Each structure stands twice: as structure tokens, then as C-alpha cells.
Amino acid sequence: MSVSVRVSHRQGDFLLDAAFEAPPGITVLFGRSGSGKTTLVNAVAGLLRPQAGRIAVGDQVLFDSAAGVFLPTHRRRLGYVFQEGRLFPHLSVRQNLLYGRWFAPKGARREDLGRVAEMLGIGPLLERRPGDLSGGEKQRVAIGRALLASPGLILADEPLAALDEARKAEILPYFERLRAEVPILYVSHSAAEVARLATTVVVLEKGRVVRQGPAAEVLADPAVTPVGARAAGAILEAVVVRHHADGLSELQAGGHPLFLPQVGQAPGSRLRVRIAAHDVILSRGRPDGLSALNILPGVVHEVRGGEGPGAIVSVDTGAGRLLARVTRRSAEALGLGPGVACHAVIKSVAVAPEDVGGR
């Protein structure tokens, strides 16, 4: 089910004028604070009536200013996951979950409580109260409540922002599982979250869409400003080949071996791996005598300089496009430019667990 959004709305000095098409999967609205992400999601939710535009989920038109259509929130078949779980403290987890069914439309397929609880790993929590749950557990219950409303679309407004890194790592795999369950419009300003989750990325800047497309393409573009040079990186798609006794996992990416600290997925699993630009070193020839295990031959696609001494070099390899953050002095000394052959060197231990996720 696809989502079509076209919204124009002014709030004081801020003008939101954005349009995009979201295919099935997770579409991430990506941008800095104040770019219009939450305003756009609230318009889809019906919490805000835009001054002009049209919003549709599949065949259902939620808003059309020209036709005078504005469905109230309770008729939109939406699930909303906020930054904090917002569970009812006086109800058990089971009762919080079943509350979502009150909003399921008549005739809609009823989600099975047992299946949802198993998928989200909250079966043992059903008789507990929210006050006895961790932050990550509360968010999983909130996701389950949204699913049990049988939504046509789930809205998630920075659902991991209030969690520490350990709780984020706990929740991310559950959102990965949801990609095949129901379309999700997901708000984030974290490049790592986008790399793990996004099917499609819509980049917002000052209320306008400045870039949209598949996650691998958008994040590999150094011109995408919400990322910034320090957080720039690229996504490689890989398959787990085997796990070694020394604690490394061997993956295959575009016919090239890729060694990472041991991943939890079984051989044959397909993964996304985010490689940060500052963890990539470039060499004109194939280097010898290095401790780094991952050396990928490639060709420079582009060299983009910044205001300071740094530059971002995008390199096309058999495993996919990589970004490398180097100094302009190094780029000039190596003679790097479009079409120049080089090798990208990646330290195995530089790839953090949160940068590896399922496809």
C-alpha cells in the first residue's frame, strides 16, 4: 500500500510545502530539528488541518482541500507511536494492547494478540503495569497497541529519541520486522536509524523536500545536508557466509568478503551494513602489511570539498558505493578525482553492532 502526500501549510514564519510518494515499507522523514517532519506527520494523522493539499493512503483519501475532504483522526485507520510510550498507567500491558482494538474499523482483519505479543517479545509482560516496564519495553507495547488497531499506516515520530543506546538496540530489530507488516512513516534525524530501517528516505529542509529515494542512494550522497560530514556514511547489502572461531563473521558483499565483529544472524541471512565515512581509508594501490581485513577495489565517483580542510570522496566498489572522509591535502596528494582507481580500506572493528541490521 502506497502513501501519497502533498501539503502546503503556513505557521507563523514557517512554511511547510512538501510532496512525496511513499511505497510499501518504512519511509523515513529525515532532517534536522525544525525542518517540518513532525508537522507533516501530524497533518497525515489529522491532528493538523493543512491549508492546502491532498493526503491518501492506498485508495483512502484522508484529506483533499480542493474536494473539501478532511477525515477525523479516529476514522483514518492509523497507528501512532510517539517518542514516549504514552501507555495508560492504571491498565495492564494486556489491557493497553487491547485498547488499540477499539479503533479497528468494522470488517478490518483482526490482529491476533498472541501473534503480536510474540513478534514483539512482550508475552511475559502481559499482566504487568507500565510502571514496572523499562523504556524499551514500553515502546514495544506502544508498537503492539498500534498494530492491534489494524492500521493501514503506522506513524512513528522519533520513537527512539528518549531511549539510551542499549534500549535503541533492543527496539530496532522490531521495526525491521514491521517493514513487511504495514507501511510506516517514520520521523528521524539519526543517520544510523535511517540506514538500519528505511526503505525510502524523504529529506526535509526548511519545510521542503530536497531529496527522496532508496536509502542506499540518498545516504551515499554527500550533498545530503542533514547528515553532515561527521555522520556521513553509506549502506552496503551483504549476506552472512560463516562465523569464525576468533569472533569474526564473514559476509559477502557484491562478491567481496567483508569481515565484521560477530553478528547475530545465521549464515544465509541478508543484512544491511552502514559504513561511516570516517572509518574508510583510501589508497591508490592495494596496500600490504595492514591490520585492516577489508580492502575493496573501486573507482572514485566524486570528490566534494567542504569549507574546512576535509573532503568527502565517494567510491564505487563491487560491494556498493562507499564514502570516505579525508583531508583535501590527502585527496590532492593521491590525485583523487572522478574515474581514478583506488582501494577502500575498512577496519573490521570500526563497524558497530547498531550499524548492522536485517534487510
Automatic annotation (TrEMBL):
<dbReference type="InterPro" id="IPR008995">
    <property type="entry name" value="Mo/tungstate-bd_C_term_dom"/>
</dbReference>
<keyword id="KW-0067">ATP-binding</keyword>
<dbReference type="GO" id="GO:0140359">
    <property type="term" value="F:ABC-type transporter activity"/>
</dbReference>
<keyword id="KW-0997">Cell inner membrane</keyword>
<keyword id="KW-1278">Translocase</keyword>
<dbReference type="InterPro" id="IPR004606">
    <property type="entry name" value="Mop_domain"/>
</dbReference>
<keyword id="KW-0547">Nucleotide-binding</keyword>
<dbReference type="Pfam" id="PF00005">
    <property type="entry name" value="ABC_tran"/>
</dbReference>
<dbReference type="InterPro" id="IPR005116">
    <property type="entry name" value="Transp-assoc_OB_typ1"/>
</dbReference>
<dbReference type="Pfam" id="PF03459">
    <property type="entry name" value="TOBE"/>
</dbReference>
<dbReference type="InterPro" id="IPR003593">
    <property type="entry name" value="AAA+_ATPase"/>
</dbReference>
<dbReference type="InterPro" id="IPR027417">
    <property type="entry name" value="P-loop_NTPase"/>
</dbReference>
<dbReference type="InterPro" id="IPR050334">
    <property type="entry name" value="Molybdenum_import_ModC"/>
</dbReference>
<dbReference type="GO" id="GO:0016887">
    <property type="term" value="F:ATP hydrolysis activity"/>
</dbReference>
<dbReference type="GO" id="GO:0015098">
    <property type="term" value="F:molybdate ion transmembrane transporter activity"/>
</dbReference>
<dbReference type="InterPro" id="IPR003439">
    <property type="entry name" value="ABC_transporter-like_ATP-bd"/>
</dbReference>
<dbReference type="InterPro" id="IPR011868">
    <property type="entry name" value="ModC_ABC_ATP-bd"/>
</dbReference>
<keyword id="KW-0813">Transport</keyword>
<dbReference type="InterPro" id="IPR017871">
    <property type="entry name" value="ABC_transporter-like_CS"/>
</dbReference>
<dbReference type="GO" id="GO:0005524">
    <property type="term" value="F:ATP binding"/>
</dbReference>
<keyword id="KW-0472">Membrane</keyword>
<keyword id="KW-1003">Cell membrane</keyword>
<protein>
    <submittedName>
        <fullName>Molybdenum ABC transporter ATP-binding protein</fullName>
    </submittedName>
</protein>
<feature type="domain" description="Mop">
    <location>
        <begin position="289"/>
        <end position="355"/>
    </location>
</feature>
<feature type="domain" description="ABC transporter">
    <location>
        <begin position="5"/>
        <end position="231"/>
    </location>
</feature>
<keyword id="KW-0500">Molybdenum</keyword>
<dbReference type="GO" id="GO:0016020">
    <property type="term" value="C:membrane"/>
</dbReference>
